Amino acid sequence: MLKRIVISLFLLIFGFVLSYFNFNELYSKISFLIAFILCGYSVVFAGLKSLANIFKGRFSKIFDENVLMSIACFGAFALGEWAEAAAIMVFYMIGEYFNDLAITRSKDAIKELVALRPRTALLLKEGICQEVLASEVKIGDEIELRAGMRVALDSEVISGKAFVDTSAITGESLPREVKTGDILLAGFVLKDGTLRAKASACESQSALARISKLIEHASANKSPHERFISRFARVYTPVVVILAGLIAFILPFIFDGGFEVWANRALIFLVISCPCALVISVPLAFFAGIGAASKSGILIRSSAVLSTLARSKSFIFDKTGTLTKGVFNLNLVCSDKLSDKDFIAHAAHATSSSNHPVAKSLGAAHAKMQPDCKLCGKYECNELSGLGVRAKSNSDELLAGNAKLMKDCSISDFEYSCEHEGSIIHLALNGRYKGHALLGDELKSGAKEMIEGLKNAGINTLMLTGDNEIAAKAVAKELGIDRFYAGLLPEQKLELLERELGGGVVAFVGDGINDAAALARADVGIAINAQDVAASAADVVIINSDIRALSKAFDIAKRSRGIAWENITFALGSKIVIMVLGAVGLAGIWAAVFADVGVSLLCVLNAIRAGRK
Questions:
Q1: 369 confidence band (pLDDT: 50, 70, 90)
Q2: Which are the catalytic amino acids?
Q3: The domain at 303-323+444-538 falls in which architecture?
Q4: pLDDT tens digits for 274-311?
């Protein structure tokens, strides 16, 4: 396209020089015609294809910008304005070139991510390391990672310690230290050392693959602004053609000037009316915003989601793992029937098969107290969602969970009082209450600043948690959250969320499988550092645990939506003014050409602003 534009510009200037010095008129016309053909053949063919829809009954697809430009150019030829016809098409293509350039740059994030995907991995089998295609590695296979290598698959470190560069995936600038038990995402780069890891996802389901797919399909679900432009164009284009026809064929019989004058004004009217500034710049604003978010480790499924996020009035948060780190420390054991060591041993055995953060913390506390005692599988454990765990062996039944579990199971002599802040885990053995343990959970770094930022933007904040009232109140007070509800089961969270939905656009922020239903039900579901079910149910996925990325996602959404409205207002306003001036003869064909191209370029440049990180 650039080569054709350069050659056409040269021929256009050459034709003007020939005309200015009164050389052979035929040569100047040939220059203008070749310039028109080089730049305009694709537009004319596209316009003919659109007009062909009349024979297929697709009347809504007959008129588009290609038809408008073709009519304007052939009308100029009919009036003997060869220079104007060539100039219309050349400058139109210059505008299209810059539009395409902007769109290409906005897709750089996709190309970078696709290029990041390593094709091979070092597979460990029976102590032998072999390079294989990443697609051949199965879940559970062991792989080796060496300094300088890019991680090919999502995996869990099973031995070694190293620093990894996560910037390509999470946007974090500083390397992160990883050790046994930590999760690696595809796309991370090992800075030093050697790690052994176990693949937790196949190549096609890795974080990097999911990111690429999300961004590539992000424009499939159009925003309200894009749907407005599509509906508007279906009405706008035929109306413009009809008005141009009225100007050319009716007004000469009403006003002075003759057919040629009014036909020329009709052509000017058509050139100005070309809607390319709207058609291109509005989707570009959202696509650029999605690209900017992806560079910061924020995945947004579509431009419709981005637009909805910008209109959010309330943010509802899960607590554990979302606002807090989800890594509990044992603060206190309150039991007059068991020693601290025995209490923790029973609680750890009861919850040994659970992946809940509290269960992991109890296991860690048990390992610290009794490093030689391993958690065995003698208990058959049944996890009760939102309540706790019931574990049975041949001789014993253990219950570990919240107060509601104790009451539902009619535990005798269950009574407790605790003024300390933290998550409380009650323990019952064979139907008898044995006491409770107090676990403390730290707030995530940046959580308070994030809440303050949302409140300054006029957002209502609400926290829903299955934790006890004391722990929930302490977190809500420290963060400055407007309201909170404690002691909730997953279905109760969903009920409260649905109650809030009537008061404007609601975003729900969570991280676990038990949040999946709420993430799917909210106007915008936002998953923090989530995997599998929670991530698939969410509209926005923040792939690291940095809660501050939530504020950035909201800012990007507001900026993209604001830029889209700026482009709609500016493009429509300026076109209406210039169209009126052209219709009454106060704007010539050159003013029309430059005004149309200028409006398009300004809108595109404005849209690119949405791509700033």
A1: confident
A2: 318
A3: 3-Layer(aba) Sandwich (3.40)
A4: 666 666 677 778 878 887 887 777 888 777 888 889 98
